[in-house]
Amino acid sequence: MKKQFLSKIKSASLRAAVIYAFAGGAWILFSDRILLWFIDDPALLSLVQTIKGWFFVGASALLLAWLMRHYIRKVYREGALLDEVISHIPIYVFWKDREARYIDCNQRFASVTGVGSRENIIGKTDYDLEWRKEDAELIRKNDFKVMTSGMSLLDVEETHVQADGVVATFLTSRVPLKGESGEVIGVLAICSDITLRKREEEELRESRDRAQANLDAALDAIIEMDGNGIISGWNATAKEIFGWSAKEAVGRRLFELIIPERFRSKHEKGLGHFLESGEGPILNRRIEVTALHRDGHEFTIKLAVAPIRRRGAYRFIAFIEDITPRKQAEKALLESRKLFRDLVERINDWVWEIDCNAVYTYVSPRVSNLLGYERKEVVGKTPFDLMPESEAKRVKAFFREQKEKAQAFDALENINRHKDGHLVILETSGAPFFDEAGTLLGYRGVNRDITERKRAEEALRENNRMKTEFVQAVAHEFRTPLNSIQGLTEHMLNREDLSDEQRREFLNNIHERSVALGRAVLNILNITRIGKGQDLPLTKESYSVKEIFDQLGPFLETSASRHRMEISFTEEDARLMVDKAKTEQVLENIVSNALKYSDEGSLVQIRGEPDGEFYRISVTDQGIGMTPEQVARVFDKFYRVDAFPTAIAGVGIGMSIVKHIVEAHGGKIRVDSDLHHGTQVSFTLPRDAAAKHEAV
User: Fold this and answer.
1) Considering Cα of 151, then 155, then 161, then 162, what sign does the dihedral take?
2) Cβ distance 443 to 429 under 8 Å?
3) How many other C-beta atoms are found inside a 10 Å radius of the C-beta of residue 39?
4) Burial (CB count within 10 angstroms: exposed 0-12, middle 13-18, buried 19+), residue 238
5) Which one of 37, 96, 307, 504 is least enclosed by Cβ atoms within 10 Å?
6) For the segment 524-533, what is each residue's pLDDT rounded down to a tens digit?
7) 641 vs 668 pLDDT, higher one
8) Are 679 and 620 in contact (CB under 8 A)?
9) Closest to 224 (Cα-Cα) out of 179, 186, 254
10) Residue 584 pLDDT more than 50?
11) Nearest to 493 by CA among 480, 503, 484, 481
12) pLDDT: is 670 or 342 the higher one?
């Protein structure tokens, strides 16, 4: 820069000297000639020439001083002006020496490099600035390319990270700096910040791309026509939709190609009305209309028509989408929804949907069958609102855990309260559903009523328990008489001194124990037949009531000796058509229970009386009685009112067999009991119709 400045000073000095020389020469030449024209006296001419000489010296000195001052000031002024311009123009300027060290730059460039004032950049290289390494290498590469080739490098885009950390894009032009002899002594670069322009260009491209993408996505076919309805534009998609090629379509009237015949006059009237008034009901709107294909079939399209006025005439652009697949899909979806709705409303399970707060947003009509509520009564509630408090707390904690993990769950058993108050056990399965972003929206699932199944499972467990107790009781029932029989027979075999009376007593005991064993075996066989669904074999004959109860006498003498018995019959001669042995089994079982569950000395009553075509027999005790729940199960197999180890002996099948024997005869049996106040068992047996007819 200094060399350039000195060169300019030198040039200005030479220019002033040349002007001075020409001015001095002209003065000498013309002034002498003028004096010779006007003065003839040599002395006077010499004096005047002397005065003229001194005047020339003074004037020429002043002229030279003025010229030097003028040109040098001009040089300084031009240099200051150039420096001022370079410092304030909205571009970045720098120049370097042959080693790519900075000679100078404008202040704008110094600011972006982070050196502060421009003096601080002198002598630095790009590696000394706050450039990224790759940016510094690119700048130096381009600098040396210019200095090596001696050719300018114009409009090169370079991206740099500025001192403030902002990434900027520059458009840089480089020219070689040459010395007096023409050799390259450095490089001068001018940079323009085009970051904003690049961003605007990118945004413009993106905007155009978005606009084009929206157009391509929203509309399939594009058709252009003039004010007379003549087609002037027809794209490839229009050919796919309507079957006409562009060559076939262009030049023809639109209504002839794609509008069904019944709509053509309306189309022409609408077009004419718009051309006259500038108004049209379908313009600038998206509507669904029926279109015509080349092969003659009609289909539904979505149409948008935009009018464009050019040079006083209208043209129209139609954007058309074939929505036949969508219509078919909508129809299929409606059918699918109807099928799904019909299925949901007919299956026995209750289908539901809840949001993230477990609030029901949908319930199928089956909720009424399961819990007695109408759908509108459940929507807006939570599942926990329908549960007992403790159950709601348990299930709410479970749901919270599943929701946090967004997990499905299966076969969750939970207790719900029916609208009428009774409890219902449901089995619930559910799965989460999400939006397109993967955000959990809620759960969908089904509820199934498993109340009866749970009762059946409980009954099965209870039945298995009773079977176990039955086996234990049978073992006990068999062991006691068997032990007695074994002990008596061993005693008789080992004792030869027994009297006949003792032997008879032992044999009677053995016989009684054998009869008890036989009765137990018979009961087991009977309950086995009942379990298989087989009828009990009956041998029915006509017996009087007295004959039946006479057989009960020995049993009462041995079993009821510690109780007060009261027996009364009405029409004891009445004849019954029964299996005598099984009827005795019924009586013995019922009376035995009355005696076992009554205190010693308490009263046991046996009553008999006619009851239409039947004869009713009732056994009433003053024993421990039963609860309503126990009465409801008294005829169940293996059920015992008291099943504790200290309970009264029994296997729990007697009353079940009694019921089947009575019903096998066509009669009915009933149990009425009051806890702690006794029990009454009454049953009916059929009367002998033939004997009754003979008596009449």
Assistant:
1) positive
2) no
3) 15
4) buried
5) 37
6) 666 666 666 6
7) 668
8) yes
9) 254
10) yes
11) 503
12) 670
**Cβ pair 194, 158 in contact under 8 A:** no
CB neighbours (10 Å) of residue 587? 21
CA angle at 169 for the pair 167 and 170, rounded to the nearest 5°: 135
pLDDT band for position 421 (cuts 50, 70, 90)? very high
- Does residue 160 register a pLDDT over 90? no
Please say whether the beta carbons of 379 and 391 come within 8 A.
Answer: no
Distance in angstroms (rounded) separating the CA atoms of residues 511 and 518:
10
**424 CB neighbour count, 10 Å cutoff:** 18
Tell me the C-alpha distance between 83 and 330, whole Å: 75
Amino acid symbol at 209:
D
Please give the structure tokens belonging to residue 145: 């390319």
Structure token pair of residue 683: 């049953």
Yes or no: say if 71 and 87 are a contact pair by the CB < 8 Å rule.
no
The answer to whether the beta carbons of residues 20 and 67 sit under 8 Å apart is yes
pLDDT of residue 397: 93
Amino acid found at 481: P
> Nearest 5°: CA angle at 621, between 615 and 624?
140
Does the pLDDT of residue 577 top 90, yes or no? yes
**Interval 73-129: pLDDT, tens:** 554 454 454 455 555 567 888 999 999 999 988 888 888 888 888 889 899 998 988
d(CA 120, CA 136): 18
* Rounded CA separation 149/135 (Å): 21
DSSP 638: T
